[in-house]
Design a protein that fits this description.
homotrimer; about 240 residues; alpha+beta; DNA Polymerase III, Chain A, domain 2; Proliferating Cell Nuclear Antigen; 2 domains; 9-stranded antiparallel beta sheet; 4 helices; 18 strands; about 15% helix; elongated
Chain lengths: ~240, ~240, ~240
């Protein structure tokens, strides 16, 4: 059983952080809330998302798994406007999710979750940590797209830095400690990442919201931020690119 | 002779309801106003439009027919802004319509009306009638486009209903009597229509305006609504699709 | 040496008037300001632009030439928002321009100016002059694009006029003297121009700003207007098209 009511913007927020990485996801639903963990088709990035049942207006659920086509759900949500309360109701017999927006009833078929994996979150030792307003990073990521397809993230005791280098042009964004919400780094750390992926992970974070970054040396990066009015939490993992020099 | 002045938004309104169905139309002009009746190229839909001369700021006309290319007129109207008063003047010698917007004079060639038909409005017996705010239907039509290419309209004593069914997904919009402006139906009626056409007919109606729907069983649907501040009236007819089961 | 700080909107203004005509330009920089003169690849139009050093927040320069890729600079400026102050710093060793926006440092390679010409401004005798608000002309140019690829500009003692003629349709915009800021013409003058080029030259002028037009008979047209809060000035020259009749 799964029966819930949720504000349009909360459901849209879940779609916004998930759909840049994966289209078909398995929602793990239980009485406490909803979680999903998925790896992108190229196995470069992972999303781990948890939403507390307090993010919902009404919530009632047993332990079930729902296979969702994010594109389809996103199309349905475009029919709603901010402030709408959406009803979600799992129809077990037909394996469909019944989405109700006002007087509109949309029955959406679900994907078979039988073949869908349960990826494990790898155990990583990422010694550096920085908490940054998303808006501070956005400009650097956008600028980097013009000169290269990968960027370096560096953290040391005093700065967070983003660096991209093309054949002739470079981009450098240096954020000193006083522009960061928090910086904890006992040494110099640096890893290289795909700009496409990094950009997809930063875009869903609203400009004024904080994003927590965990970094090591030639190691994956972990990004964390809250959604759904702090009643939900997202973790992204992105594998490093190895410098070819 | 045809010489008139009209507010930009009135002329744009005429284009908005006509151009989704037909591009080349014959305007029948006389001293009382302008009418047009046309069938779309696929012979699935008909538009019947009447504008009273009171919809114009100035109006002077003998009995004439003007062949208009709606795309071209629409392009000209994009040069105007809300509040502009447009002058229309028929130049009989050159068979052109002289459109004046402020200091700009645009002479537009007309289409030969010789070969253009005068379709007759068929005599239909459509027993059910519902008057609905356009905004109430719009969401249902948009949702239907995602699951099928046709939708069913149903009316009974208590509800107006719109239903679309794809291979796996469905859309249902049920509007009970108290959400309708008027409902008159002694029985259950249902007909099936192309979503593309139905969407084109509903889109030009502004959200808060009423649209009157006449329905029968496996019969055409008739939509009626006012334009030009109630000084103009539009009737659409749409042929049914026959259920193949 | 070249080291300057400039408001984002001033730099964007320079790009807006230049990039519709030429992509690669040579900036001639000296202690008084920056100038550029360039001919479009088809040799139909010329731009002559001068910016006083007073248009900058800070300005320090020796005599140098910088070869700029306008597309690239435009891409960089999209990272800035109105009110940003941009730092420009010429790195002579690497032949790069260092563009700093907030904490972002973008090093942009420059183009070799060795092969770039120094076009001379032709000496023209254009007897008619009209000063017009850009917004008055814009509608006429847009309307002309629908009927032809060239338009005529006419000036006489009483009017400024724009005229375009297609196979069946025409556009005419007549601005009497009292709608103009200034009109000085002792006779009738008329020249024909490419609409594409003329449109590219009028578009960068903001609607409420004045543009000064100098016209002769079958002669180039000269357009002049201020930018950068009157601390910069632009001259466009456009060669006439010869009427083929």
């Amino acid at each position: 059983m799964f029966k819930a009511k949720v504000k349009s913007e909360v459901l849209k927020g879940i779609i916004d952080v998930t759909s840049p990485l994966v289209n078909e996801v398995k929602l793990n639903i239980n009485s406490k809330g909803i979680s999903l963990r998925a790896v992108d088709p190229a196995h470069v990035a992972m999303i781990d998302l948890n939403i507390n049942n307090k993010a919902f207006e009404e919530y009632k659920a047993d332990d079930i798994e729902l296979g969702i086509d994010m594109d389809k759900l996103s199309g349905i949500m475009r029919l709603s406007t901010a402030g709408d309360v959406i009803s979600l109701d799992y129809d077990e017999t037909a394996n469909r999710l019944i989405v109700t927006i006002g007087n509109l009833v949309r029955k959406m078929s679900l994907i078979d979750t039988a073949g869908m994996p349960d990826p494990k979150m790898p155990n990583l030792n990422l010694p550096a940590k920085a908490i940054i307003k998303a808006s501070e990073i956005n400009r650097g990521v956008k600028a980097s797209e013009a000169v290269s397809d990968h960027l370096a993230i560096k953290v040391n005791k005093d700065n967070f830095e983003l660096f991209a280098e093309g054949d002739t042009d470079t981009v450098n964004l240096k954020l000193p400690k006083d522009l960061l919400v928090e910086l904890k780094s006992d040494n110099n750390y640096k890893s290289l990442f795909s700009i496409d992926y990094f950009s997809n992970m930063i875009k869903p974070v609203k400009g004024e919201d904080n994003v927590t970054i965990h970094l090591g040396n030639d190691n994956p990066i972990k990004l964390e931020f809250d959604i759904a009015d702090k009643k939900g939490h997202v973790k992204y993992l992105l594998a490093p690119r190895i410098e070819s020099e």
